[in-house]
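Listing S7. Sequence submitted for prediction.
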Amino acid sequence: MGCIKLKAQRNHILFIRLILSGYRCLLFWVLSCSTSWYISITLMYSTWISYQNNAISFMVETSYTEWDSKFPAVFVCDVKNDDKIATVSDKNLPSFHSRSHALKLQMISNRTLGPGSLQLELNGRKQVKSLNIHQRKCRFAEENYLDVINSYSYSACLMQCRKDAQLRKCGCAHHLMPNLS
């Protein structure tokens, strides 16, 4: 008699039954449990490490259809309107301009503009703020702990690190380093 016995019960469902007799069955059971524990612990550890190092992920929400687009945009949803699109496109065919019949546009050359501004919309500030600085790998404006400059930036952080390293190494800092007092 083997360690594993397949048994068919009602409705022809197959069940696996362990018959605990002999050292081979005990060895099979111990190896199966040990392997499952090892794999479970490995998965939990890798999930924990992933959470510690990459707790924040940026992604585009594609299932949300109520976007408030703040830039000039065109949305074409031609999945269900094939007949309407065909009708409208036939009507618009005479107004189509090819390269040989192109409209003369007044082009402006050498026009310069000032620096633009780019605004990013990020949602989840409260949830992100609950993570520690090490996990999110950034600071908010009110979390400035720098001596050298009042506002936080990456270069200011590097300057602070250099100042701290100089003070640790020799007890002094470069004479041009801001806020040495």
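Caption to Listing S7: primary sequence and predicted structure tokens for the chain studied. The chain has a mean pLDDT of 72. The chain is about 40% helix and 5% strand.
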